[in-house]
Amino acid sequence: MFYWLIPLLLIAAFLVAIHISFRAPRCPNLEQPTAYDLPFKLIAFKGLQGTLLSAWWIEAAQKSDTTVLILHGWGANKSMMLPLAKPFYAAGFNVLLIDAHNHGDSQKRGVSNMPKFAEDLNSAINWLQKHYPTENQKQIIVGHSVGAAATLLAASQDIHANAFIAISSFAHPKLMMQRYLKRLDVFPGLVTLISSYVQWVIGYRFDTIAPVNTLQQIHKPVLLIHGDADQVIPLSDHLLLCQAAAKQSVECLEIAGADHDSIDKIELHFNKVLNFIEKYLNASSSQN
Fold first, then answer.
1. Fewer CB within 10 A of the terminal residue: the chain, N end or C end?
2. Which helix H or strand E contains 97, and what residues bound it?
3. CA end-to-end span of the chain, whole Å?
4. Which candidate, 51, 29, 32, 52, places its Cα nearest to that of 40?
5. Whole-angstrom Cα distance, residue 230 to residue 209?
6. Which of 65, 98, 84 is nearest to 267 (CA)?
7. pLDDT (tens place) for every residue of the chain, 288 residues total
8. How wide is the angle at C-alpha 216 spanned by C-alphas 211 and 218, nearest 5°?
9. What is the 3-state secondary structure (H, E, C) of 26-82?
């Protein structure tokens, strides 16, 4: 009698399964900056829709007019970026590490997605300009994984910053979906259907937010960093991005032996990061 409900229930179950599958896990911040001998101030500021973002403000030992804003990746948090904050602090920069919405100690805000990560970057920059204008005359935004893709998206939308560093970014959401849903290839059209639904949920077409496309719209210096042992986002994505950029202000750095989360290995090559910053920062700040 109620057989007509079965298709509706199956569709509902299918949609719920998609949401659960793509939900970002919330991991607690297990360390504080003091574990790396970094002095810090715990802060919270409003993001979009009035929800609070948690952050650590690490002021340079000597007065600096440059702040490095660091954003983690999917399912990560600001404590996982501390190995990256340490060399920036040692180089004399202010550092702000933030938890994206639905991550770490930040409040929940709907369904997580990469464009919302980019919105959180904008909220952080606005907070810095209001509360630390002297220390935030120059800005460098650093993102890892999904945070790296969000960094490139924010940069393409002319976020107020001088230079951008994207670590372990994917090239296109379509490639990510194909890799993640590879086991569903036995069902013709299912991956395309799921991809279409995800695009509808986040409110963006994949082509619009794909790093391989947004990178070409950026007019500020960009450094792309990737480990050649990355098992999550293969080096081939990095090579696609480097090929797509083809600009003098976009530089690429491969780190031997580094996996997707080998943030600590970047410190071993930090002289190259500093060379990039010193090469472009003064020139780009005069264009802001």
1. N
2. strand 94-98
3. 67
4. 32
5. 22
6. 84
7. 455 444 444 444 444 444 445 566 789 999 999 999 999 999 999 998 889 999 999 999 999 999 999 999 999 999 999 999 999 999 999 999 999 999 999 999 888 899 999 999 999 999 999 999 999 999 999 999 999 999 999 999 999 999 999 999 999 988 877 776 666 555 566 667 777 777 777 788 989 999 999 999 999 999 999 999 999 999 999 999 999 887 678 999 999 999 998 888 888 899 999 999 999 886 554 454
8. 95
9. CCCCCCCHHHHCCCCEEEEEECHHHCEEEEEEECCCCCCCEEEEEECCCCCCHHHHH
Closest CA to 270 of 94, 1, 88: 88
- Look at residues 245, 251, 257, 260 and name the one whose alpha carbon lies nearest to residue 278: 251
Q: Quote the tokens at residue 101.
A: 């919405």
Please check whether residue 145 is in contact with residue 260, taking contact to mean a CB–CB distance below 8 angstroms. Answer: yes
CB 99 within 8 A of CB 72: yes
Amino acid at 247: K
The DSSP-derived string for 226-254 is EETT-SSS-HHHHHHHHHHH--TTEEEEE
Burial grade of 152 (CB within 10 A; 0-12, 13-18, 19 or more): buried
Residue with tokens 């209001």: 130
Question: Strand 94-98's sheet: what is its strand order?
Answer: 41-46, 52-58, 94-98, 66-71, 138-144, 163-167, 222-227, 250-255
SS3 7: helix
Question: Rounded CA gap, 271 and 278, in Å?
Answer: 10
Give the dihedral of Cα atoms 208, 213, 214, 218; nearest 10 deg. -150
